[in-house]
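Data availability excerpt. The first of two example chains:
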Amino acid sequence: MPLIRGKNSGASSESSGSPQAALDSPDADSRWMAARAFAGQADAVPALAAALAREPIPRVREAIMTALIRIGNPASIDVLLPYLRSQDAGVRAAAIEALQALPEAIAPFMPPLLSDGDSDVRLLATELARNMEASQATRLLCELIEHEPHPNVCAAAIDVLTEVGTLEALPTLERCAARFAATPFLPFAISVAMSRISGEKS
């Protein structure tokens, strides 16, 4: 998992104070080390949330997100979810990667994400199902596809189903192909998905 990785920065600037104070340091290496020191500490979620909101350095943001992953509770999920709406593609990608690392913890948050009023959020949420247990991912994505009006969101869900879907997805995929018959790329993607799912499971 790329976000959780060791790093020997060689820095000599580790704060001599508390990790919480170091999160406010003007020195990026001190903030990076402070974030690592908070990994797994549930009571550090508010401090990590505040630090993430103001952090401009990608590797320090990654360290903060990694600390939140290692905490892995609903509070840490709540901190990460708003970054799915970030205008910064790198931040969005890092948030998706972090949330994908928590497939069990993210499960209760999936229904509201997949019914969000913003189609971009629904599309990104399909990626969060990729690391979930296959039957659970299939159920969530099929519930989305059955009512999803945006072809690009359906295509994103179908892409994930192609990788993790079970045979239970086939009827939903057939109905989606009929509904979007005038959108050629979707029936083609669905035919690929159905072939892959049937082939893997037969």
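And the second chain:
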Amino acid sequence: MKPFGTLMILAGTLLVATAASATPATDELFARYKSEGASGFDAERGKKDWLKEGKEEDGKKMSCTTCHGDDLSKPGKHHKTGKVIEAMAPSANPERFTDAKKIEKWFKRNCNDAWGRECTAQEKGDVLKFLLSK
């Protein structure tokens, strides 16, 4: 097989894998975020937001990785309570993004914990896009 053909098959596989990660709940949320003025959700921008440090607590800047860790296929641990947080990656935890109400609940709580404010619709869409790619 020619290299171009191999590349096209690989690109198609990646597209299917990414699309397979979406759920009716995430589709609903993307539509909601668009209705709130967000658009063009981008996984790379979501990754930057995921790593962005915000609020300082106990002398340490918080980011999403503070509790969720760097490997999203592994469980994390809440920085204060020590409670185990199941893996964020849908590839490791297929139930992760199947309930829109839960997703919104956790965005509200975690954005306030990490950044000291609620996330915008654009930030939530971008981060969700990033997480669905895992």
